[in-house]
Fold these 3 entries.
Entry 1:
Amino acid sequence: MKAAVFHKIGDIRVEEVEDPKIEAPDDIILQVTSTAICGSDLHIYNGFVPQLRDMVLGHEFMGTVVEAGPDVKKVKKGDRVVVPFTIACGQCFFCSQGFHPNCEHTNPEMYGPSGDLLKEKGGAMFGYTDLYGGYNGGQAEYVRVPKANAGPKIIPDGFTDEQVLFLTDIFPTGWSAIKWGKVKEGDTVVIFGSGPVGLMAQKAALLHGAKRVIAIDPLEYRLEKAKQVNQVDVINSNDEHLMEKIREMTVGRGADVAIDAVGMEAERTLLEKAKAVINVEKGSMKVIEMCTEAVRRSGIISVVGVYATPFDNFPVHRIFDKGLIMQFGQAQTHLYIDQCFEYVRSGKVVLDDIITHTVPLTKASEAYDMFKHKKDDCVKVVLKPGMKETESKK
């Protein structure tokens, strides 16, 4: 089969690889019909999360079940499903409490309580390095899906792939951000990052009754997308009066809730990059810093942007002085996927309006380059294994 294979930093190629096989009685094999490139994939592509051996990437995918192990009861051959990006058993201590990203049984080589970068991690994810289980991802024609009684969700007839594909990750991630932020009717929410996750967090905030949503991003075309699809207020993060403008929009107090939908790969100056090298840091925590400034006293900060290393000068002084509440982590996709789907089913939310490019899987290498370098006003790329190269569309 064809698959997008990571070889080294900046090097992803579509190649022929061995077809996946059933390895455990609760596995399924999925024929992938649609998959997407996530900002988290760029963490591997850019070297922020290390991966030393070749691996098929991709944790946002859906398709049709073509084979099922003997213990699989939840789905059957022929079912069309979307698959949460985290791999979870559904039964352990953490899964039973809704914390599926911390599953105790899916990442046996690297799992542990410490959470250190190269020592002990949480549960497994598709296509997200050996640190998180070493499972091949779904940017391929076929993919093995373990623990199929816990993860995949059957999609009924009448929905296009594009309408439901983002239930795999980015909509439940945006939803988790808003749930963790305890957003309620009348709140003002400031969301740093207007990429795919930020756009989904904006949608989720409005569905939770936020009175005002303020989108922050350094790229004007992404701010235009936020205005177009979500009708939110926008401010460029490079505005020298950013914090003053946020406070002007929030009766001088700051936002009730601040969301970090960027993570460690925020834009950085040369001085910030030099500091990161000296402190052995990957990327920057400047968005967390901005969240602590932008949120009001006794407010809540929710962080779904990815961070992979410790950071010097963490703003604990401001967090203490303002009495802030913070929650970080991988999204609770398994917990929220059904709820998120009901909003799609009812027509209360549209997810496919953020897609800017749809290309064949065979053009994955070019698509990664475009997404990384923000070419052609790229916000979200969908890859189609069955698409001909002449059928690419924007």
Entry 2:
Amino acid sequence: MQAEHQEYYVPHQSAFPIIASIALFCVAFGSGSVMTAAENGGDFGMILLFVGFILLFFIIISWFGKVAAESREGMYSPQMDRSFRWGMGWFISSEVMFFAAFFGALFYVRVLAVPWLAGEGDKGISHLLWEGFVNQWPLMTTPDPSLFKGPEKIVDPWHIPLLNTILLISSSLTLTFSHKALKQDNRTATSIWLAITVVLGAVFLYYQMVEYHEAYTELGLTLQAGIYGSTFFILTGFHGLHVTIGTIMLLCILVRVLEGEFSGKKHFAFEAVAWYWHFVDVVWVGLFIFVYIL
């Protein structure tokens, strides 16, 4: 029997990848300039960061909208569907490596560098760099408090962080219920559970902003608060950025569901966003354990 031929859709040339690369460069360079507070580079870094985010959101809206329109027009074959799945899988794999690098830095500091400074291990001579240093975590003091003042208190994990953990785990459950309802072509239940997921994500972001405000104004925990402040805000900040992106993606999927798109057998856009959201939730569990509790 002759094998069935499947057409593979080849999109027209587009400037989206180039503009996306420029946007990501602006975000990376701008955020680096802001965090390091380079001389005469703070204002320029903020401008560059703002421009990068504007370009990035423009690309996300335009590019995803183009892909959704092509899908509605029936341009995609089963082979294209498999390509989307592989692409999303590799994207999440890259995100795993992204957060693994920051968790690895946290591990290096806590398990190796800090004990070495206190005179432990085969590199214990490092304690000569900081006389009287005590191995403790989080570090409440810095070598030069005039430049980097240590935090006055640490974040209590059993209040806002615990609440945020409950919110994100609950959002994974509601998203799973929504996905199951979509497979059964129950659009009402799909919409309700998905809307609840969006609300839970938004509430998480609100409480994280509350936590950041308390950290800066009441705990003395800032980006300038030594290695503890740096690792805390880098890890939780990047995770918050991912939650923001994920919430926007969920909101877009909700709008498409309300417009009558997707079916029980064809809804990869929904699945891709669900994969991303579950990944973000798993990362938060790791943050809650290794950043807040241990």
Entry 3:
Amino acid sequence: MKASSEVADATLSGGAGDALFRPVRTNAFEETIERLLQAIKLGLIAPGERLPSERELAVRLDVSRVTLREAIRSLQQAGYIESRRGRYGGSFVISPSPTSRQVQAGRLVSELGTALEEHLTLRHVLETGAAEAAARQLSSPEQRAHLMRRLAETTAAEPADYRRLDSRLHLAIAEVAGVPTLTGLIADIRRQMNELLDAIPLLEININHSNEQHADIIAAITDGDPPRARRLMAEHLAGSAALLRGFLTP
């Protein structure tokens, strides 16, 4: 007879379960990752316990079963969940052995203290403002070509080069905004954020989603639509923030 912790779905009704497993907002994949990691780290689903069924989680989070499966598969690859077959099969939480990436993440969190949210807020303020300003200031074919080159480079990037080329694209947006001081501030915050991002798994689904968002942001800028450029950049940054909170918050 299997132990009850291995065969019974975790009970997540009421209280903290309802708070965590509420409908996600804009970045379905990234926010699903964040919610699942929060439930694991808070002990709502303990090692050895099975996740609720895909059907239940998809309904509660208001995401497609495809998105949910992608999130669970990513957490399997990151060492937080394992899949078991058979009568009592499903997706089970495990206690991952610390990897060098997780050790690095722990060090960064320790160094940051409570400053993670400060970094995320500063990034939001600077980069949404830069996107809005770029949409207002874009005025030459050279600026347009510069953005399109950076977008193409990022979209075609190999995983090993992705962070670097992603940063170049975001800095190109700041350059088009035409405020050198702003570009310098964004370069500083991107350096700090990249150190944090390097400490979490590089997820293929997140890269694909980011590339789609990049294309939409650049389209808003080149169309001269400041409100849309700001809104799309805010949604894009929220996806990265969800992953950072999920993986880095104890």
